[in-house]
Amino acid sequence: MTQEDELLRKNKNGDGTCLDELVTIYYSDIFRYCLWHTSSRQAAEDATQETFLKIIRYFDTYIHHGKFKAYIYKVASNVCVDLWRKKEAEALPEDLLYIEAGFEQTEFDVDMIRLVQKLPKEQREIILLRFAQDLSIREIAEVENIPLRTAQSRLRAALKQIKKSINAGGKKRE
To answer: What is the pLDDT of residue 170?
Structure first.
């Protein structure tokens, strides 16, 4: 039984402190996910907090089938979509800087972020969930509410497009 399963079991048996532990486990991952989908650090913090508030508010209706991580990301995805609708889809600045240590490592990271941002929304989401959030293809399919094969084909298409852009960029520099 995983730590997550154990915490969910304890919570079902009336131990309310388990929700705090689940928030602690997933907070930084959900925050980084929200950073990708919002225009500022403050908006990402708000989206992260709203995500966990919704999870806590509706936790009694959650039925655990061993996929709590996918459930959290689905809630975060919906919260971010709602924020985009409210803000009328602000464009991300071209020179967006990330303060999180994982995003500021190299110039390659910045270039990769720009390449990912140029992908169609469906492909971009698959790339972010797979590589920035380290979700499995099965978890991604659940978050996106699509068949497993569709998630796989979108991932392949996105990677092919990124490779094509990298190769095109390299030829221009020569």
So the answer is: 57
Phi, psi angles (nearest 5°) of residue 134? 60, 40
68-86 vs 3-12: helix crossing angle, rounded to 10: 80
* Count of domains for the chain: 2
69-93: pLDDT as tens digits? 888 999 998 898 888 777 654 544 5
Same domain, 135 and 67: no
What span, in angstroms and rounded, lies between the C-alpha atoms of 123 and 62? 28
State the Cα torsion 62-63-67-73 to the nearest 10°.
-20
Q: What is the CATH number of the domain that holds 1?
A: 1.10.1740.10
What mean pLDDT is predicted for residues 113-140? 87
